[in-house]
Design brief:
Blueprint: E1 20-21, H1 37-49, E2 54-57, E3 60-61, H2 70-86, E4 92-96, E5 99-101, H3 106-111, E6 122-126, H4 136-145, E7 149-153, H5 166-173, E8 177-181, H6 191-203, E9 208-210, H7 216-225, H8 229-237
Parallel strand pairs: 1-2, 2-4, 3-5, 5-6, 6-7, 7-8, 8-9
Helix pairs in contact: 1-7
Length: about 240
């Protein structure tokens, strides 16, 4: 099979301890993730090689950059799944969720609920990487009142949030689950995000780990990370909820 990247290392299956990747962007041409089915297949094969056996794909829903519709995403996901299976992938495509940016388009979606959920249970939400929109906490509370289980994507990447401060503590006490990106542990997003991720782990504030794989550059970084003994110890030490999905 044609490969988008040359391997520096052979993959090690250290992520078998998680089993399931619940955050990635591998439906082609719907966001800033995969650009074609060949790239999606390459990434899925890499996820399998580093130990994952199941994956939920979570395209962006973000106004105005990615104004996706749930019905269209479902259609595109089913077509991607068909093509990926025909290409011989061995990892289970368990379903499609969404990564919903809390932005100006979020409240209308909440008023007429139509979220794509991970494992038919969780809604993955994200904040802007630059500035949190006013009223985020209230919108999350409204989601919970409607019966949704909310996961906040990669809180270690929000520089304006004190990683163990009162705002984060409020969200945790409110029942929001936290998901960090495994690549943060290797410094993929910089040293600040790496330090914040490890501080959250040490505090016991992380329920889920996601790859947030967008393309083959992320896939190569996962292969490299599979040789990181410190990350391997994290996976052995903590009991993440990925295995329940």
């Amino acid at each position: 099979m044609f490969s988008f990247f040359k391997r520096k290392y052979e993959p090690r299956p250290i992520f078998a301890a998680l089993g399931t990747d619940m955050h990635c962007h591998l439906v082609p041409k719907v966001d800033d993730g995969s650009k074609c089915i060949e790239e999606s297949v390459e990434c899925l094969n890499t996820l399998k090689a580093v130990g994952y056996n199941k994956v939920f794909i979570t395209p962006h829903f973000c106004v105005p950059r990615f104004p996706n519709r749930e019905d269209d995403i479902l259609r595109r996901y089913e077509e991607m799944k068909r093509q990926a299976i025909e290409a011989g992938i061995e990892i289970e495509l368990a379903g499609v969720g969404g990564e919903y940016r809390i932005d100006t388009g979020f409240k209308p979606r909440l008023d007429n609920p139509r979220f794509l959920k991970v494992a038919d249970k969780y809604v993955l939400v994200e904040f802007s990487l630059h500035q949190q929109m006013m009223g985020c906490d209230e919108l999350i509370f409204d989601m919970q009142m409607k019966g949704y289980e909310v996961i906040l994507a990669h809180p270690e990447r929000y520089p304006y949030l004190n990683v163990l401060g009162s705002r984060m503590e409020q969200l945790k006490n409110q029942g929001v689950y936290f998901q960090i990106n495994v690549l943060s542990l290797g410094g993929f997003y910089g040293e600040d995000a790496k330090k914040r991720a490890y501080r959250m782990l040490e505090a016991g504030w992380v329920e889920f780990m996601g790859t947030d794989t967008h393309n083959t550059m992320y896939a190569q970084a996962l292969v490299d990370l599979s040789h990181d003994r410190k990350v391997e110890k994290v996976l052995e030490r903590y009991d993440f909820l990925n295995k329940t999905l």
